[in-house]
Amino acid sequence: MTEGMVMNLVRLLLYLVGMIGFAAFNAAYLTLLERKQASWMQLRRGPTEVGPWGLLQPVADGVKLMSKQLLLPRDVDVPLFLLGPIMVVVPPILCLVTIPFSETLVARNFNLGLLMIFAFGAISTFVLMLAGLASANKFSSIAAARIVAQNIAYEIPLLVIVLSLVMSTHSFNLHTIVDQQAGGFWHWNLLRLGTNPLMPVAFLIYFICLLAESNRAPFDMVEAESELVAGVFTEYSGMGFGLFFIAEYVNIVVGCCLATILFLGGWHCPFGLLPGLHWFLIKMYALCVMVVWVRWSFPRTQFYGLLNLSWKILIPLALANLLLTAVMLKLF
Amino acid sequence: MSSDAQAIHHESFVLNVGPQHPATHGVLRIKLTMDGEYIVDAEPVIGYGHRMHEKMGENRSYAKFLPNTGRMDYVAALFNGHGYVGAVERLAGLVVPERAEYIRVITCELNRIASHLLWVGAFLVDLGGFTPLLYCFDDREHILDLIESVTGSRLTFCYFRFGGVCNDVDDNFIVGARDFVASMRSRMPMYDAFVSKNIIFRKRCEGIGILSADDCRKYGATGPVIRGSGVAYDVRKMEPYSVYSQLDFNVPVYTECDCMARYRVRIDEIVESLRIVEQALGKLPAGPVMADKVPRALKPPKGDCYFNVESARGSFGVRAFSDGSENAYRLKLRSPCFSNLSLFQECSRGMLLTDALALLGSLDLVIPDIDR
Amino acid sequence: MIKYFQEIIEGAYTLAVGMGITFVRMFRRRVTLDYPYRSLTMTARYRGHIELKRDEATGQPKCVVCMACQKACPSNCIKLDGQKPEGAPRKVLTSYMLDFTTCSLCGLCVESCKFDALTFSHDYNLTSMRKEDYQTMDLLRRVGGAK
To answer: Which domains are present in chain C?
Structure first.
């Protein structure tokens, strides 16, 4: 075995551990962020008892979930039911592989990175559907049926928006896309009005689709607790439920990372100074705060309202955006 | 049955909503026959919170039933007390001092505001929005503090007595109530911007859950439900009791018949109740708060009477029969929620599950009031 | 077509207003009271469980064992007993038991008392691991009366 291979192996292991650690850390502390932020918006204090300012609350939650019994209801499809929670966390963690956190910090930079993220992103919603159907519960089944429609409805505008972006970047490589946005916020894709004057609108559509794809309120048809009890998670208990919870937050992280890379200049500073990991994290977490902020501000949409929003507003706008980009690229 | 209907019947399944479902606010159970997400039939199953209040009214003396009144519609407990003492006073021919009547009106209207605020919050939770609930509770808490300073409890008030009220209000209460009226008025624009105008909220309420005026009349719906369907029926105006005839207020009516109309009626009623509280505080006369010579063991003469009040949910009526003894011979309690719920079965047919639960929320049901 | 865009823009505006309202409140004063560390003082009329009143002059309960409270109680949760010692002007309370598990805190007993011998406790932190603690609350012992 050559030294290079050993180095590669060590590198691989480090990235594996790092990525899972990053995902777990984010899932844990985004729950705390969510609880804290929601309580601040509601004039409450949120968790304060476990650790200083409640900072150890996620640990307590984790211990509680792990110590609970994993119930297996009688009529469930056992293999699918058990596979559900596992399969739902793997895709978002895999998506982190190709995210460039900074100039040098990326596990595997390959040319079709963007495509890979969407390919894996599509899996997790279908896993949710399978888990819902395997639960043999009417509420879960209704939620599972909703997920399919929701997934199709929001994948389209999301991909069309990304397509129009790729038309102007000419690359699926996330590293390249970030590099093109170097040197101040006016170079960011968000404000590249020269290639497409509708870029801010495109970002907004992307953000809405991000909420819908990660099943966050106001589009949380998967859970819809006042209608469907807990949607597809109804029959899950203990860490089975916990894994769905983790997956939801890792999905948000991946979505926010991607938004940072595609629209907000990745690791580049808004003023062209000191690029690095910190800028990436600042932007990413700011978007996470936005996601939480939206959730606790609005009621849930109806299911058909959600589809109306997608098919009547987002998809036409996304297609108009695509067309405009094509015309602009041809003309200039 | 047509072949289409048969096909639907064949494919339908039963979905059990409640008694432990988050949308039913308690122990209401609704057996939904569903075709996909469409409701074919909805059968409310009630009685999980049945506590025989009517029977308890028959086997204990009139005064001993007073604590029960706070435990039916516990969100607006004062109205139940008002209805009950009103009926017994009419039966026994007791004259209530004017100050006591004003105090009853003030506390009842504060209770109405508290009840509507709780409803706004709970309705938004039904629709999936949590934050308004906490803002409503913030305001509601001030009302409960005020009422607690007079009655001594925060929820199941037992405040009204035959011939008056058990405690007089003090200056602190009057100042506090005036402050509350001002602060609540200043809060209304926030609710308007945050809830009423919100596009998601409007999409979920406008045109959803249509209850026609005929359906409302057929099932005896009252309160904000019927006023949201264009019928200006309010007991306070139709059969003025207490001192409502001396107070100037409007009855908000909306003709859209949808959830939004019912929401707007309640929001407008908060504003009207604030006006009533303000006027009543201004007119509050001096004097005693209890009638003289109310016998300890009340034995009303033979007879029966009906007395209804406009509770936060509609017309709450009490029919009391007396056979001249210490106990009522029969006590009939007409609860508004029971009638309002009976609309649901007919009107939810053909609706989507989401919309039907919005309709259910907009009826403002308190389950122990249905079951009694 | 104009209506279509108008609705989108108006809708987006209302959502932005909503987010503004929640944003402002993130920096407002909290309304939570840190309960176990701080607690509210109850209002003067707070209706807790009942308590016997003591006569300051004699140090004995004011109760004259007229049984009015026992009769007034809707849930029959008051049991009291008294006896008349030789030569005493009135009955002396020997036991006053409150079954707090069935008490509905209505306050009818306090109102029924013509001798101002009952009052409401302001204690609301009542917990116990044993049912018996509240099934038989010995009010006479709480007030420190003769046994």
So the answer is: 50-143 (3.30.70.3270)
CA of A296 vs chain B CAs: smallest distance (Å):
6
Please give the ipTM for the structure prediction. Answer: 0.83
Instruction: Tell me the shortest Cα–Cα distance from C18 to chain A, in angstroms.
Output: 6
CA atoms within 13 A on the CB side of B252: 17
Range of weakest confidence among A80-94, A216-230, B173-187, B193-207: A216-230
Give the closest of B60, B131, B138 to C22, CB-based.
B131
Chains that touch B (3 or more CB pairs under 8 A): A, C
CA distance B297 to chain C (A): 10
Interface contact B197, partner C, CB < 8 A:
yes
Which chain B residues are closer than 8 Å to C74 by Cβ?
Answer: 60, 64-68
Which helix (H) or strand (E) element contains residue B210?
none
| Burial group, residue C67, by CB count within 10 angstroms (0-12, 13-18, 19+) | middle
Domain ranges of chain A: 71-331
Query: Percent of chain B having pLDDT more than 90?
Result: 14
The per-residue pLDDT for range A143-183, each reduced to its tens digit, is 888 888 888 888 888 888 888 888 888 888 888 888 787 77
% of chain C at pLDDT higher than 90: 0
Sign of CA dihedral A76, A82, A87, A90: positive
The residue of chain A nearest to residue C11, with distances taken between CA atoms, is A309
- pLDDT tens column, C13-69: 888 888 888 888 888 888 888 888 888 888 888 888 888 888 777 777 778 888 888
Are residues B63 and C72, on separate chains, in Cβ contact within 8 Å?
yes
Distance CA A58, CA A66 (A): 12
Q: Is the separation of the CB atoms in C16 and B197 below 8 Å?
A: no
pLDDT(B4) > 70: no
Q: How far apart are CA B360 and CA B28, in angstroms?
A: 11
CA triple A84-A90-A94, angle to 5 deg: 160
Chain C neighbors of A37, CB-CB under 8 A: 26
Q: What are the structural domains, with CATH classification, of chain B? A: 57-367 (1.10.645.10)
CA distance B119 to chain A (A): 15
Greatest CA separation for chain B: 73
CA distance B209 to B42: 14
Residues B289 and A287: their CA atoms lie apart, in Å, by 60
Chain C within 8 Å of B51 (Cβ-Cβ)?
Answer: no
Rounded to whole angstroms, the Cα distance separating B16 from A228 reads 11
Percent residues over pLDDT 90 in chain A: 0
CA-nearest of C12, A9, A202 to B198 is C12
Q: Write the DSSP symbol of residue A276.
A: S
* Residues 6+ positions from C116 with CB-CB distance below 8 Å: C53, C62
Q: Which residue of A has its CA nearest to B122?
A: A226
Comparing alpha-carbon positions, the chain A residue that sits nearest to B195 is: A298
**Bond before B19 cis per omega within 30 degrees:** yes
Contact residues on chain C for A289, CB-CB shorter than 8 A: none
Report the residue of chain A nearest C12, measured CA to CA. A204
Question: Each residue of B281-321: pLDDT tens digit?
Answer: 988 888 888 888 777 778 888 888 899 899 888 889 899 89
